[in-house]
Amino acid sequence: MTGITIERVDHIGIRVRDLDRAMSFYEALGFKLLHRVTFDPVAIIRNAAGVEINLILNANAGDPAKNILMDVAEKYAGYTHVALRVASIPDTIAALKGHNIRITQGPSKFGEDGGISVFVRDPDGNVIELRGRDQGNVEGVTQYANVN
């Protein structure tokens, strides 16, 4: 039997309620609108490194202030977050502050690999982990602890 050879992640699909509101957030992370699909409620965004996200523009249920996978006591199966590699954690933290994007968890260190992550949420509560190497003094770094 032949196996499936996965070469890389092609794109990430994230369901959102409003394109303009989502774009103000994702533009702060370096994404630009590439194409608005005409046959489906999808906007394709991409950054300079070629990372592609498909914003699925049909979120219409649930409490807009809550993420059903992260903010309720019951734990449903599903994707909880996407982790995006960044070039510099200190620069990332500074940029987030400059765009008034709240860090919801971190900076946190995972294991001994030198990686540090900060977690943020888009306007629809979708969790984005921004992960990079510790390039020096990162104020407030703690050992990661699962809070969900």
Which short descriptors sum up this protein?
2,3-Dihydroxybiphenyl 1,2-Dioxygenase, domain 1, 148 residues, 9 strands, five-stranded mixed β-sheet, alpha/beta, 2 helices, 2 domains
Which structural class matches the secondary elements?
A: alpha/beta
Order of helices and strands: EHEEEEHEEEE
Architecture per CATH nomenclature, i.e. the level-2 architecture of the largest domain: Roll
Strand order of the largest sheet: 5-8-7-6-9
Distance between the termini: 39 Å
Total domain units = 2
Counting DSSP H or I runs of 4 or more residues, the number of helices is 2
The CATH homologous superfamily of the largest domain is called: 2,3-Dihydroxybiphenyl 1,2-Dioxygenase, domain 1
Strand content: 25-35%
Q: Roughly how much helix do the residues carry, as a percent range? A: 10-25%
Rounded to the nearest angstrom, the radius of gyration is 16 Å
Name of the CATH class of the largest domain: Alpha Beta
What this model shows, in words?
- It contains two helices and nine strands.
- By secondary structure, the chain is α/β, with parallel strands linked by helices.
- The strands form two sheets. The chain has a five-stranded mixed beta sheet with strand order 5-8-7-6-9, covered by helices on one side. A four-stranded mixed beta sheet has the order 1-4-3-2, covered by helices on one side.
- The longest helix is centred in the N-terminal third of the chain and has 10 residues, at 19-28.
- The mean pLDDT is 89.
